[in-house]
Amino acid sequence: xxxxxxxxxxxxxxxxxxxxxxxxxxxxxxxxxxxxxxxxxxxxxxxxxxxxxxxxxxxxxxxxxxxxxxxxxxxxxxxxxxxxxxxxxxxxxxxxxxxxxxxxxxxxxxxxxxxxx
Amino acid sequence: xxxxxxxxxxxxxxxxxxxxxxxxxxxxxxxxxxxxxxxxxxxxxxxxxxxxxxxxxxxxxxxxxxxxxxxxxxxxxxxxxxxxxxxxxxxxxxxxxxxxxxxxxxxxxxxxxxxxxxxxxxxxxxxxxxxxxxxxxxxxxxxxxxxxxxxxxxxxxxxxxxxxxxxxxxxxxxxxxxxxxxxxxxxxxxxxxxxxxxxxxxxxxxxxxxxxxxxxxxxxxxxxxxxxxxxxxxxxxxxxxxxxxxxxxxxxxxxxxxxxxxxxxxxxxxxxxxxxxxxxxxxxxxxxxxxxxxxxxx
Lengths: 117, 298
Fold this sequence. Notes:
Chain A is built from five helices and three strands, in the order H-H-E-H-H-E-E-H. By secondary structure, chain A is mainly alpha-helical.
């Protein structure tokens, strides 16, 4: 697995939590909403999404409820819990700090090399 | 692969899951497929739509594997937390007997405390199999002490033991109630309790026939190994019928280990209990159309 793939996989819980931070959603909706919001950059298969959702539920970060749909199969909606919201906020600030520092370092390295050249 | 075929293959990958979880997962993925089939964004051509949907789902085996990591964690550790204490128990008993003159408190109470610790570990690990293995044993041990040696221990300890007995029965009842839809687990939980309580109730009676049966069991040298083997089958087999059979043999062995009273009942009772459970389980699964996909709990 490439580093980028690992990074993407590692960010799955964060992405899921951010999707359901404002409204409850069902699996299919989460998958497509994510794809849409990221302009297709983040797309995940059901094999990645659903186990991640269930793991988040087992960890108490999300909770679920089944809702009947007329003449169709029931849908399982997921919503974020207060513990999940806290984890999302913490994770967002960690990522923010990581990315800021990463870009800062990359830019300064590039400038240093330009000056050297 | 059609959606139906996908769900069928996916179901096969859920062998070993509880019936409830299995049904919920199938429903959730089925609902996902249904949403995809109705989604206009997936394209107009049905074949193309289906192809896109299948690609989005990922391999059914991979999906099942993902869930397996969540719903069957650490089964081996739970199994070891049963087998190792069972191995220790025999030596612990001898050790306690040898230490009794020096440490009069070193008796069955130490074993009960040891088993309480194991139940606590089962609860902490969220392992129903581990918890349900030790909980009925605590109840039976506490009951035995209360009934037979209460005069020896005094009121404070008797009250404590009564609380332990009542607490373990309450907890056992709660777990059984939550697992009531899985008859295999219900029987797994109540079998040691039934055999243990019967053992206590019939302790003073033993006839010649019982004695002979007892001797047959007693003379089998590797009975412990058979019991551990049965437990391993119960824990790790994904075939429900094999798990029922393992439970039945385990019940017989359990009966044989409880010394003295009527062995006839000890043979009949485990077999009757397990057979009744198996029959109920089979009829329920047939009603749900699950006979071909035997799920096994936890």
